[in-house]
Inverse folding.
């Protein structure tokens, strides 16, 4: 029964697994060379190869043009270039969103009639299959997008948790900063009160040398305290910005520890503490910055002295372990609570112990200790059995390979104010009027002729008339900075003046910037009188006398 | 304070070029060392010699960048050059990352590139961005940007692109320190106290009806509407009165690219070459079953797009004054526009002035802002502005 066979083949076209074979057999049954199925794209309304058939039909332009015209239901017929260089008769039956393409032929009309009857039904099946295929593709993309969105959401959740944790830390840090600022205000006010009092008394009791000396001593002491506070703050700032540069040289650890203990001697004595230093027989050479390393150990000794009740015991023992010098500093003081141990080196962290307040300080010491030790390639740890059970701070430092030579040079002493051999015309430029005026006073005492300018523009005007031998320029001037003032001044002073940059920044890159701008010297504030004498000597006025 | 320095050298000797750039950077910073240098070099250069000399003279190995396909600045443009942006800032922190074996494991490469990012933990630097340059020929740029997005919890803006090689499409490199590496992705994390502005825009519009992607293999497009892709493109050329030569399709591809229809927008894909089987090789993957359009543009719309990207980047720095910028644009845009590409650069320069910029032509561009997932584009202008 021929029609029953055609029917079975058409049914076969609806089966994705049998579709291509059924199409080939049906083509033979219809008496055509080839049979293709196209389905209507639901979004674009064009005919594309049905699922299961090759998705790329390699035919000529006439084929593409013909298929594009086959949108309406019914029969469409044309000669097309399906294979390269050969025209073929093409008959297309369109119904129910499905197109059956018969190439070669003509088809047997009776078989075609069967096919035509079943076409709408087949169209529904293949259309659904096409929709499903596109849906699957879209679903795959949607699934992909959903999976990426899920991954991103999980990552966001992680980030949110991290942020929440950081927020808590931030609040803690904010609290510590608030506490620190309150403490800073207190610490700054302490020396200011006697300073203000002493100045007032000096003003009222002029002429009494003993009273004047006593008050000057008070002022000097309080200024030292203020200077130390400011130095600590600046050091912490430099460390946190990575702007501390070590001036390393060969030295012996024993000497550094000796200096550090001596620096803390006044506090140790005042509290009645005993301190023992236990050094190994062999010298322990280091390649380090002696000033900074002394600062490390003096801070640790100072800390131990502060946090230990009167008549306490502090021991400093030194050993050599695996190429490292290990310094253990123990005290029998108040100890450290377990929850504080991990934070003792953090900025703005200070144990809430009233004893510490008795000696003041900003709680920056241990932060500096850790930073400076790490800058030396070492590490520092803190240990305590708990509150009331003392503390041990252990510093590890790399040992140098050679022992430094003994220079035999005594420590430099305080120099009196030197007087210059030749009076220099000096231009001091600083927007801090007190700093500029006081520096001018010192230069006058040294026998020179200073002029002061508080801005770069004023300095340029004064320099024209003054024709200075020496120009001391603050770098951080408003409007025209020190670099620019130097550059402009150089143009009309034509090398006759010596330029000195006065700045709070002493890193190598700062010095290089000064050189680039034409400065002869880069000097870090504050400047001592003997440093000024050196500057004057290099400007052509060596020291003649001292006062 | 943020100091920036932009430079472009035409010096053909690589070591000399690196030395000149390094010296110029140091001079601009009054002898100080830059915190980071971003550098883009023509394939005519010996990258190792260039980077070594640059690092030596600039005094830093925090160098990130890539080979490129055209280099430019606000002052000049051309091929065979080296462009560089150096930054020195006390309000920014930079960190270099490198992910290798991009072609075989893009996820691991992206994770390695982001492994040194510390932005989320850095409370002082709340603005997070990263320059990302990938070896374009190793592929997977889309996946890299997506993985970087996941790895950073969507908290970073990314900008950059695919490394070029002067349009040869043979070997592309990314730069990390003094190393020029293939099959890799480099990242330069930029943490900042101030926002870093990223803008992106393309000037392409559909030139015809949508076409169903009926057969595709990754970035190899076989058929559209059931017909060979090359035939469809040829029909489009005929219908629009354009010349299309199968033996030399590049001139046509420069003016006709593909846009994947996606949520009311078009993700651009640039055709790079014709394969022997009639398939079209694109710069990045095209999804099976998607609808694409053949897209067109004009010189005016390219200029407009560059302006839009620049304005968007400037708008993202919250009214701060721009210090310097990076501009990335597709190699196809430069080749298509020819001399008119300078109009595009001039448009950027006018908007950014007095800030300068440098940049390069890339094989694909990267621009991802918060709220986006992907961020790999084709034929698109990307502008990144660093505030003063």
């Amino acid at each position: 029964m021929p029609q029953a066979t055609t029917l079975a083949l058409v049914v076969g076209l609806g089966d994705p697994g049998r579709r291509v074979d059924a199409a080939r057999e049906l083509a033979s049954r219809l008496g055509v060379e080839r049979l293709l199925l196209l389905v209507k794209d639901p979004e674009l309304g064009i005919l594309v190869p049905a699922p299961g058939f090759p998705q790329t039909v390699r035919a000529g332009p006439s084929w593409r043009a013909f298929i594009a015209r086959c949108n309406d239901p019914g029969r469409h017929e044309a000669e097309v270039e399906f294979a390269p260089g050969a025209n073929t008769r093409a008959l297309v039956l369109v119904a129910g969103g499905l197109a059956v393409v018969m190439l070669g032929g003509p088809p047997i009309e009776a078989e075609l009639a069967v096919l035509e009857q079943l076409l709408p039904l087949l169209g529904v099946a293949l259309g659904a299959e096409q929709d499903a295929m596109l849906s699957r593709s879209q679903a795959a993309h949607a699934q992909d997008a959903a999976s990426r969105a899920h991954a991103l959401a999980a990552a966001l959740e992680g980030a949110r948790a991290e942020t929440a944790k950081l927020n808590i830390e931030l609040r803690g840090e904010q609290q510590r900063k608030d506490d620190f600022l309150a403490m800073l205000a207190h610490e700054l006010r302490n020396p200011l009160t006697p300073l203000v009092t002493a100045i007032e008394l000096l003003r009222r009791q002029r002429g009494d040398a003993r009273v004047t000396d006593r008050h000057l001593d008070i002022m000097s002491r309080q200024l030292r305290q203020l200077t130390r506070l400011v130095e600590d703050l600046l050091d912490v700032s430099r460390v946190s910005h990575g702007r501390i540069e070590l001036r390393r040289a060969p030295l012996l650890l024993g000497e550094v520890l000796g200096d550090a203990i001596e620096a803390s001697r006044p506090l140790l004595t005042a509290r009645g503490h005993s301190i023992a230093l236990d050094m190994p027989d062999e010298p322990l050479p280091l390649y380090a910055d002696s000033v900074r390393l002394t600062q490390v150990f003096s801070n640790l000794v100072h800390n131990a002295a502060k946090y230990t009740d009167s008549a306490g015991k502090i021991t400093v023992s030194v050993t050599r372990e695996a190429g490292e010098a290990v310094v253990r500093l123990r005290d029998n003081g108040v100890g450290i609570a377990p929850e504080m141990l991990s934070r003792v080196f953090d900025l703005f962290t200070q144990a809430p112990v009233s004893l510490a307040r008795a000696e003041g300080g900003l709680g920056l010491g241990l932060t500096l200790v850790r930073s400076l030790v790490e800058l030396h390639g070492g590490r520092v740890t803190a240990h305590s059995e708990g509150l009331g059970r003392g503390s041990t701070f252990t510093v590890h430092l790399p040992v140098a390979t050679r022992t430094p030579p003994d220079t035999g040079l005594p420590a430099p002493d305080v120099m009196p104010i030197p007087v210059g051999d030749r009076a220099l015309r000096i231009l001091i430029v600083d927007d801090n009027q007190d700093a500029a005026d006081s520096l001018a006073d010192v230069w006058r005492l040294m026998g020179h002729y200073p002029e002061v300018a508080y801005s770069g523009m004023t300095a340029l005007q004064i320099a024209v008339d003054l024709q200075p031998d020496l120009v001391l320029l603050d770098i951080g001037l408003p409007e025209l900075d020190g670099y620019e003032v130097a550059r402009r001044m150089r143009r009309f002073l034509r090398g006759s003046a010596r330029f000195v940059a006065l700045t709070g920044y002493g890193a190598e890159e700062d010095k290089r910037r000064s050189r680039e701008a034409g400065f002869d010297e880069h000097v870090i504030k504050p400047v001592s009188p003997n440093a000024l004498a050196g500057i004057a000597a290099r400007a052509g006025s060596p020291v003649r006398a001292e006062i | 304070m943020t100091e920036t320095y932009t430079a472009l050298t035409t010096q053909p000797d690589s070591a000399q070029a690196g030395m000149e750039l390094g010296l110029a950077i140091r001079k601009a910073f009054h002898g100080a060392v830059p915190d980071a240098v971003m550098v883009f070099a023509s394939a005519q250069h010996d990258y190792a010699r260039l980077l070594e000399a640059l690092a030596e003279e600039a005094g830093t190995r925090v160098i990130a960048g890539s080979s490129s396909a055209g280099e430019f600045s606000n002052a000049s443009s051309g091929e065979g050059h080296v462009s560089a942006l150096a930054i020195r800032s006390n309000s920014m922190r930079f960190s270099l990352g490198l992910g290798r074996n991009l072609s075989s494991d893009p996820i691991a490469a992206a994770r390695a590139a982001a492994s040194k990012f510390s932005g989320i933990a850095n409370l002082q630097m709340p603005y997070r961005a990263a320059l990302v340059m990938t070896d374009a020929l190793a592929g997977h740029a889309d996946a890299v940007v997506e993985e970087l997005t996941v790895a950073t919890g969507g908290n970073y803006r990314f900008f950059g692109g695919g490394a070029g090689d002067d349009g040869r499409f043979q070997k592309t490199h990314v730069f990390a320190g003094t190393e020029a590496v293939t099959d890799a992705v480099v990242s330069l994390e930029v943490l900042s106290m101030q926002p870093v502005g990223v803008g992106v825009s393309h000037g392409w519009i559909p030139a015809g009806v949508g076409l169903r992607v009926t057969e595709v293999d990754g970035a190899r497009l076989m058929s559209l509407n059931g017909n060979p892709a090359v035939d469809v493109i040829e029909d489009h050329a005929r219908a629009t009165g354009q010349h299309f030569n199968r033996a030399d399709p590049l001139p046509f591809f420069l003016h006709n690219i593909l846009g994947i229809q996606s949520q009311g927008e078009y993700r651009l894909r640039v055709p790079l070459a014709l394969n022997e089987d009639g398939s079209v090789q694109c710069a990045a993957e095209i999804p099976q079953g998607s609808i694409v359009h053949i897209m067109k543009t004009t010189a005016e719309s390219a200029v407009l797009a560059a302006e839009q990207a620049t304005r968007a980047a400037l708008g993202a720095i919250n009214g701060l004054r721009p210090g310097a910028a990076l501009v990335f644009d597709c190699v196809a845009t430069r080749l298509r526009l020819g001399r008119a590409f300078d109009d595009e650069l001039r448009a950027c320069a006018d908007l950014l002035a007095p800030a300068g910029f440098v940049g390069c032509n890339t094989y694909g561009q990267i621009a991802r802002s918060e709220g986006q997932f992907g961020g790999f584009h084709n034929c698109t202008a990307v502008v990144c502005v660093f505030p003063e």
Summary: Residues 331 and 361 of chain B are 5 Å apart (CA to CA).
